[in-house]
Design a protein that fits this description.
Length: 105
């Protein structure tokens, strides 16, 4: 269950990063509120995960999920263009996240 909470924390990190972009520098109140709610929920679920998981495991997985999620959202919603080399490094990031999870004892 704790791993699910950590994944949820990472997904909320992606949410708040996305809504922060939509808030246009916190000038759009609805997206600003969603950003703050996403931040609170992301930190809440991360704090729950770090009660059981070591910080050295939970934090890089949380940030990795948020980073990869933000990249995917950027490409889909904001038409960000990434080079093939950048995609290779995104793939390495995904492999690293999985590796950290699999090697956690």
């Amino acid at each position: 269950m704790i791993w699910i909470e950590l994944i949820i924390a990472g997904l909320f990190e992606t949410l708040w990063a996305t809504t922060m972009k939509y808030s246009q520098g916190f000038t759009k109140i609805g997206f600003t509120v969603l950003t703050v709610i996403g931040m609170i929920l992301s930190f809440y679920f991360l704090s729950r995960a770090t009660k059981i998981l070591p910080l050295s495991i939970a934090y890089p997985i949380w940030t990795g999920i948020g980073a990869v999620g933000s990249i995917i959202i950027g490409v889909i919603l904001f038409q960000d263009r990434l080079s093939p080399l950048t995609w290779m490094f995104v793939g390495l990031l995904v492999v690293s996240i999985i590796g950290i999870k699999l090697t956690n004892t």
